[in-house]
Amino acid sequence: MMMRKKQRFGAALATVLVLLPMMTPVAQAKAINPADQLIAPHEASYGFYVDSYKANTKKNTTPSTNPAYGLLNNFSKYWSPTKGQLDPAFLNENTAIAAKITQNRTSAEVTRSFLTDRRSLSYSIISGLGPFANAFIKNANAQTDYTTVPTEPQPATTPYSKVKWADPTSKLGDMVKLVELTRGSYGSTGVPKNTFKYKRPYKLSKDVLPNPYLVNVMAASPKDGDFDFPSGHTTAGFETGEMLAYAFPERFQELVTRSSEMGYDRILAGRHSPLAVMGGRMFGTAVTASVLNDPANQETMKKAYQEAHSNLLQSSPLVNAQDDYSNYQENQKNYRYRMTYGLPQDGDPNQAMRVPKGAEVLLATRLPYLSANQRRAVLATTGLSSGYHLLDDAEGWGRLDLFSAANGYGQLWDTTKVNMDADKGSFNAHDTWRNNIGGTGQLVKQGSGDLSLNGNNTFKGGIQVTKGQLDLNSTNAAGQGDVTVKGGTLTTNTAAKLQKGYQQSKRGTLALTVTKATAMKIHGQAKLAGTLTVTNAKSLKSHQVLLKFGSVKGKFAHVKGLPQGWHVKYHTHSLELVRG
């Protein structure tokens, strides 16, 4: 299982935050923001990937001249194409995990891994669109000549899919073009594969079982030029999945989950080892971010997003269509496992997170209401802890956890202003942060949109609502600081606990839902004004304690939502709804 080590990671960040101000020269006119230091990019030997991504060519064969080779060069610690195994125990464990996965695959996994193997690389990701997949297939003219599995092992000469995965001149042509921008030579694994020359797992161990329909195909593969690390299918899976997620962020986590599953399919088939698909995730993500940062591609990106939000894709999603990625908890578990595949975390686990230059673009449509630096902070506070083989690259691509980043911040370092404009729609209108948010900072909710907090939060700086709506959807969603509602609405539909005080101005609204439990418990003082809105009042009996507090000052000027004959009654430590 993957060890995230959040507490130690948080402690390391806190230490950096304490030390950084001391590093700033006294005579400097403008102090450096410690948070900006934490998200500053780190240059690799090849420079920054987003600046040099097109240098992945056959003529560039060193880690400092070829960014793909440089990105994955940690693999050289364990394997040398001339000296062989440098860390036999670790490489054997890598192969053993692959063997165990192939030995325990289900019939459904045999089917899926066969189709993943044979189909065009990008076509295999379409299933991540779930109920929108059929509309995409129709309007992008997407095709495959592998729709079912055979009944017996296929001949050694069985070809890959011969049809083009989708049509760039179709009604969804810009979505297709956006994906294909990653499929140039710079997105190919050829150079690193033929540099490392590491054998595929089924050639290293008889315990790794080839897919039964591909036994003949795999047995006939050439001895030279057919290598394991990194996985080309996985690379293409993340390039396609992350590009579609950029265009259609409403399926962000489902698409990146399918991308990770495409890598898992390669292990299921016996084609690749865990390290190979981990390297494919790193490579594919770096290429995707590079293409999205390229000024030449901005118009295609804009048009692809518009197409994804047009009737061509969204007019009639199939309500009862099969969606293999509808279970959020299952997606989360699978994605996080596939980041490391249980390989050991025996390096330094306390290195601060690094966020690659330009990586924030991967969240540009998923968290559109945040600034570029805020999105970098999200990536920094949701990343995988250090110490895993291969993943501690110089820039930080290996530790990016895009699934968790789509859930918002992992920590608030300082005052974090979230300005959402509901008129822009999509996630600007409403978003949900599912992470357990720590840190010392404050959350300031601005703008007309609606933000929901679902995590078990511990951030200490408190909450301020100035406009729009903030929903507390878990008991400890408010963290550990004071909560102030200067304007807008604070809501909760659960038994929320406020660890300190609560203050509401005359322009603020508190919206509470009647349940059997007290709707909100405020450990400190409640300073009340403005409006109280009560929902689910039909469940009221003869009386109901709605609010508890350490002490109270002031009263709500307006109470809405109560049935006729009901009113509020203030006590020393509670607010009660009573009839009569």
TrEMBL record:
Keywords, sorted A to Z:
Signal
The record's GO CC annotations read: outer membrane-bounded periplasmic space
Q: Does the keyword Signal apply?
A: yes
Keyword Lipid metabolism among UniProt keywords: no
Q: Which residues form the signal peptide?
A: 1-29
Q: Which GO terms describe its molecular function?
A: acid phosphatase activity
Which residue ranges does the record assign to the Phosphatidic acid phosphatase type 2/haloperoxidase domain?
Answer: 176-292
Under InterPro entries, the record lists:
Acid_Pase_classA_bac, Autotrns_rpt, PAP2/HPO, PAP2/HPO_sf, Pectin_lyase_fold/virulence
UniProt xrefs under NCBIfam families? autotrns_rpt (TIGR02601)
Protein name as catalogued: Membrane-associated phospholipid phosphatase
